[in-house]
Amino acid sequence: MSRQPTGRIETAAGRARLTIVREFHAPIEDVWAAITEPDRLGRWIGTWTGDPASGEVRFTMTAEDGAPEDGMRIRECDPPRRLAVSTQVGDEWWDLDLDLAESDGVTTLTFTQPDLDASMSDSVGPGWEYYLDRLVAAETGGDVAAIDFDRDYYPAMAEHYRALPGVAPTARPGAGT
């Protein structure tokens, strides 16, 4: 299956910000549960352990074999509308923002990664497209395992992200998120 990239890169004050939107024909509370409850998260990306009231949890990517458990800081949690976290990726920390809005039975999820290193957009963008499509499949009864990163996301979507305004023309080659 050939998938079309939907993400965009916005630049403000010299900083790039990745934005990807997905829509769900579901109540906002249901989509909120899909992005915050460990069992629901585990169906499409990973799971967390710990006490979120402490402001930190441990996150393990289940969508990738052998992924290490990493730290995750909860910067803002406003159920069921906004979740802002910082996740450890190796030695780096990435800010990730998930905003939900419901209208006429449709919940819109706006995912953003502010302060994106634009030279990494050709791999990070396809990576988040992949994970968000897994979320859609998990929540609509689709086959999450049928979503193939290597075939449909990277390198298939890399050129879309390299060509976006604000992205350095010498984006680095590399694997997904």
TrEMBL record:
This is Activator of Hsp90 ATPase homologue 1/2-like C-terminal domain-containing protein. Residues 26-137 form the Activator of Hsp90 ATPase homologue 1/2-like C-terminal domain. InterPro entries: ASHA1/2-like_C (IPR013538), START-like_dom_sf (IPR023393). CDD domains: SRPBCC_CalC_Aha1-like_6. Belongs to the AHA1 family. It comes from Nocardioides conyzicola. It comes from the Bacteria. SUPFAM superfamilies: Bet v1-like. Pfam families: AHSA1. Coiled coil: none annotated. Transmembrane segments: none annotated.
